[in-house]
Amino acid sequence: MAESYAPAAKVRPKAGFDDRLPLGAARGERLSLRARLRWAGFLFVLPALLHLLTFKFYPMIEAARLSFFRYDLLTPPVFNGLQNYKAVWENPLFHQSFWVSAKYMFGVSLPEWFLALGLALLLNRQMPGQSLIRLAYFLPIAMSQIVVAMVWKFMYNPLGLVNTLLGFVGVGRINWLSTEETALPALIAIGVWRGIPLFGVIYLAGLQSIPKEYYEAATIDGAGPWQRFVHVTIPLLLPTILFVMVMSLLSAVKVFLNPLVMTEGGPNGTTRVLPYFIYETGFAYYRMGEAAAASMVLFAFVFGLTLIQLRLLRQGGVE
Amino acid sequence: MRRFLTACLFMAVALAAGPAIAQGITWWEHSKEWNKKHPNMKVQYEFFAMTPYFKKLSAALSTKSAADMFTVIDTLLPGFTTKNVLAPIRPGWLGYKDLDDMKKAFLPGALEGYIHEGKLYAVPPIASVFSLYINKDHFKEAGLDAEKDYPKTWEDIAKVGQKLVKRQGNTITREAFDFAMHSSAWTMWYMEALTRQHGGSILDAAGKKCTANSEAGVKAMEVRSMYARKHKISDPTVSVGTNALPADDVPKGRVSMFISHAGSVAQFGPKVMEHIKVVPFPQVNPAKPVSIVYGFALAVNPHIPEARQKQVHDLIKHVMANPKQWYDKTSYPFPSANFLQLPGMDEARKTRYLDVFVGDIKTGVFVTRSPHFIEIADAMHRAMERVVLKGEAPKKSLDQACTDIDRALAKK
Amino acid sequence: MSRKALPRWGGRLTTCLTIAGLGLVLLPYFWMLSSSLKTGSEVFDLPIKWLPEAAQWGNYPDALSRGKFPTYFFNSAVVAFAVMTGNLIFCSMAGYGLSKFRFPCREACFRLILSTMMLPLEIILVPTFLVARQFGLVNNYGGLIVPLAVDAFGIFLMRQYIKDLPDSLIEAARLDGCSEFGIFWRIILPNCKPALGALALLTFRDNWDQFLWPLIVASKDVLKTFPLGLAQMEGIDSAAYHEIMAAAVVGMIPTALVFLLFQRAFVRGIALSGLKE
Q1: Nearest 10 degrees: CA dihedral of A172, C245, B180, C67?
Q2: Measured distance CA(C107)–CA(C95) in Å, rounded
Q3: Which of A272-286, B2-16, C51-65 has the highest mean predicted lDDT (pLDDT)?
Q4: Which of A25, A76, B29, C36 is 20 to 30 Å from A43 at the Cα level?
Q5: Three-class SS of residue B73?
């Protein structure tokens, strides 16, 4: 990429200061700078864009196309209009899955938004053994997903670690993963456990990028810790907060492995999140067309939600 | 340089975890021998754990990138056979006159699960069946004689179970009996066996309509749930979350009677098996026994040239030529007609309950053939969960299952 | 926020919170470690055993001698490192382009990029495989790496950070005659070290842990990644749970090391370069 900018840099007028002032600059030069920046911006985005178009966007379009076909993976697709959408809409299991996903999504991401920020604030303080404590807190990030599922599954055993601990405070034996009321909350707890360090890292990076001088200035102005938090930390952290809000929802809605390994969507479908429904329909029932239709619904739901979040925050002055 | 046959096998996770590694080893030894004999025709083999394997197989079949030979489970066959993803097996290339001649070399009915419209689509080196594992020590402790008092019927299990169960207050500390409930396929196998023993079926004869909510089906569900709900000799929730392998409760002595497949013998190992006895699958009427068989089989990729398909047949022949070697490692019976009479099988008949398993295979039928098998199994599994875990009425729950199943069957 | 600035009770409270939270967070690790040192039969003993009767250190060599673990580790390391590098470079470039330049369709580009995050891989698995095959990216390292080399997550993350950097930094550099790529390389990148650190850690982790894609795109044993090796162990028998845990403990080390490595980025970041407005 560097080569493409180098010549442009050379032809740059030497009187750089004038360059910035539209009034003093010749019209042609001004346009060329704007055009150059336009191209530069586009070229910065281009490699990533091409890659995503090829390996993500095209397959997505393909999935969208297949949602109008009867496709069993094994024989060539046959066009069948909106039949897949109709089938999905008429399938009570889809509706159940949709609500399971919605519950899981907010159940996981709402606590994450606040607890991850709390964790980052905690770890941003100077304290003895800081790097060790940080490492310990961020360990859930390092644990392989499949191991997370295996370890927690065992901890949730009726006679396992969780019930043993709860037994100390007098809670009776709960069959976490095989009771309809507790299975989803049990999975949500895992999501939160693993998500907080993840978003904590991102918050921490955001906190680190707030210059110390801002706090110093605020302190000189007589601001207490709470005021500094409200008037310095929060406003400067808003882009990060926005990012975390969007990403936590996105990653929660895509959860798949835990229900697969720990509950197989049960009991009675109470942990069958939408991605699991889609996977099951496509790869177990060999109805890829319906799976594609369901994923388009998932797509519309999640993308819509993301755009609303971005819009709301833009109105709030963040974007 | 394309002188390679590729074979895709798996190591099972949920269904056959113990013997799976043994299958792997056996397969490896087979291909090593083969490679020695055929220096120009090497076998490359690929192994995967079972759950990921089926994902990979679906993707590979869909993109026509499957191996020359791969493993299938019998329940998948109906979904595959009509779609040209499996090449018909040619008995002639395996050294038989025709399919009928080949059938004679196998246990009666052992190939039925792999036949579609008169053609065979896979060759099973493994036949499995569910039999009852009982803990001899627990029987003795309860004043019972495992040799005589072992349960023959489902009612027997309830009766014997009352003596075997251990409770502390209302909490069961040792189950007398339990069904595994970690997998919808297992649920389907039990439910189908129970329904058929009561004279019913899961689908009608044409395979177009769910009949699981018939009187026989309701009775089957009552049996499936009575140990937990009525007799209180099992705690349904314990074995679900325990681990990847519910049968592990047996060697741990957490359950006195448990239904498992033949592979558990190898999985438990000879030391544990000293304390275990295997008896035939429980029945409603022992005079008219019904059990369910299933199996894994080798299939041929139809998209490879004919000559290469023939080479794959040679490989299958080679693999099938030494059933004893396969059996020693896996403890899954090999479904050939003369299997019990093979030289060197006496020891296995004495210590590994081979006769029991082969007996159950002989009374066994394959589970309902349907391209919608997994969907049916999932619907039955949910019905079972509603009855066993929540106490819903069997009839109501099965009606719901049939609504789900009929919706699936209505689709192409 | 220095410690002195906080009232004393607040300091104590947060210290207590830190420790209590640590307990909760670490519990599964304790369980994993303790299980990895148990015998096969102790693992599933119920009621649970907190500690093994005697630590079975032999579980570790036993676990790692099953399958080709050195190969799986190597593969995961290659994939994770390559994908991480790709993401660091391309995502920060794209993030910079999207936040500090105006060009037609910029918002459309951003939304398009965002949209690629909305579907789980399961859904687009088959078409993605077909694309990869078209490029000859099947059963080789290229196939394991290239399709993952850019992720919208990273672009979004970098855009959010770079957005917040003062424009005057860039303009000053431009006035000094710096090329556009030079500005990116010498001004932007050093100023988003904390974000790059976070991105590095997260992409390394995600790709160390890559399971479904390697499963589909590679068949040879020599191309299997660590999680595939682990899943293979799961099939061995129930008693091998202790060995699975041992392998899992070892499998965490690389990500933990990467964290330690990039932890400097978090801590120093802006504080040293001090280039903010």
Answers
A1: 180
A2: 12
A3: A272-286
A4: A25
A5: strand
Asked if B98 and B118 count as a contact pair (C-beta separation under 8 A), the reply is no
How far is residue B46's CA from residue C216's CA, in Å, rounded to a whole number? 12
Q: How far is B33 from chain A (nearest CA, A)?
A: 34
Q: What pairs with residue B11 in β-bridges?
A: B49
Q: Which residues pair with residue B43 across a beta bridge? A: B5
Query: How many separate domains does chain B show?
Result: 2
Between chains, do B245 and C237 touch, taking CB under 8 Å as contact? Answer: yes
CATH code, domain with C206: 1.10.3720.10
Instruction: Classify the C-alpha dihedral B264-B267-B273-B275 as positive or negative.
Output: negative
Domains and their CATH numbers in chain A? 2-56 (no CATH), 86-315 (1.10.3720.10)
Please count the structural domains in chain C.
Answer: 1
Domain that holds residue C216: 63-273
The alpha-carbon gap from C125 to the nearest alpha carbon of chain A, in Å, equals 8
* Residues B96 and B139 reside in one and the same domain: no
Q: CA–CA separation, B343 vs C267, rounded Å?
A: 72
Say yes or no: C157 contacts chain A, CB-CB below 8 A: yes
Count of positions (residues) in chain C: 277
| Residue range C108-157, pLDDT digits in tens | 999 999 999 888 887 788 889 889 988 999 889 999 999 999 999 999 99
Is residue B265 domain-shared with residue B235, that is, in the same domain? yes
Same domain, B252 and B314: no
- Evaluate whether residue C69 is within a structural domain: yes
Chain C residue numbers with beta carbons less than 8 Å from the beta carbon of B56 are 215-216, 219
Same domain, B253 and B184: yes
Distance, CA of A193 to CA of C183 (rounded, Å)? 39
Q: What is the mean pLDDT of chain B?
A: 85
Contact partners, residue B13, CB within 8 Å, separation at least 6: B20, B49, B50, B51, B244, C231, C234, C235
| A63-93 pLDDT, tens digit each | 999 999 999 888 899 999 999 999 999 999 9
Beta bridge partners of B8: B46, B70
In chain C, residues 175-234 whose CB comes closer than 8 Å to chain B: 211-212, 215-216, 219-221, 228, 231-232, 234
Residue type, B214: S
Question: Which among A121, A209, A299 has CB closest to C164?
Answer: A209
What are residue A51's DSSP bridge partners? none
pLDDT band at A19 (very low <50, low <70, confident <90, very high): very low
Q: Is residue C184 part of a domain?
A: yes
Query: Which residue range is the domain that position B109 belongs to?
Result: 4-127+295-321
Helix (H, G, I), strand (E, B) or coil at B398: helix
Among B405, B152, B157, which Cα is nearest to B287's? Answer: B152
Same domain, B68 and B217: no
Q: Do A268 and B236 touch (CB under 8 A)?
A: no
Give the C-alpha distances (Å, rounded to integers) separating B347 from B265, B328, B344, C209. Answer: 14, 11, 7, 46
Helix (H, G, I), strand (E, B) or coil at B87: strand
C-alpha C61/C-alpha C36 separation (Å) is: 11
Of C100, C149, C230, the CB nearest to A146: C230
Contacts of B80 in chain A (CB under 8 A): 74
In this predicted complex, what is the ipTM?
0.85
Query: Do residues C93 and A45 touch, judged by C-beta distance below 8 A?
Result: yes
Which has the closest alpha carbon to B383: B393, B366, B398, B371?
A: B398
Q: Are residues B147 and B182 in the same domain?
A: yes
User: What are the structure tokens assigned to B236, written together?
Assistant: 């349904």
Chain A residues lying within 8 Å of B183, measured CB to CB: 264
Beta bridge partners of B131: B260
Distance CA C106, CA B239 (A): 55
Q: How far apart are CA B30 and CA B82, in angstroms?
A: 31
Residue B316 sits in the same domain as residue B187: no
Nearest Cα residue to C252 out of C218, C208, C212: C208
Same domain, B285 and B387: yes
